[in-house]
Input
Amino acid sequence: MDWEHRLCLERGCSETWYVAADGRGYKVWYVAREPGSCPTVVAASEPICPRCGAALLTIVELEGGFGELDALEVGSIFDYARSL
Output
């Protein structure tokens, strides 16, 4: 399996995971703490955190490499920053 490093950004969770897609074409993801360890099998179209259910993001997605991530820019502090 080809493992990818992913991050959970939920405030109460904030976990680091490794994910691998099912090689048979099913919408199933293997999610583990480290590559090669015993994974949790998650049935979803995108990898999700097995602890809280939030979408797991790559570093590129976190840094805005695939467009804007609205979930990170919500709240009064961001409204203030945009007004400057």
The CA atoms of residues 48 and 55 lie 4 Å apart. Residues 4-83 form one domain.
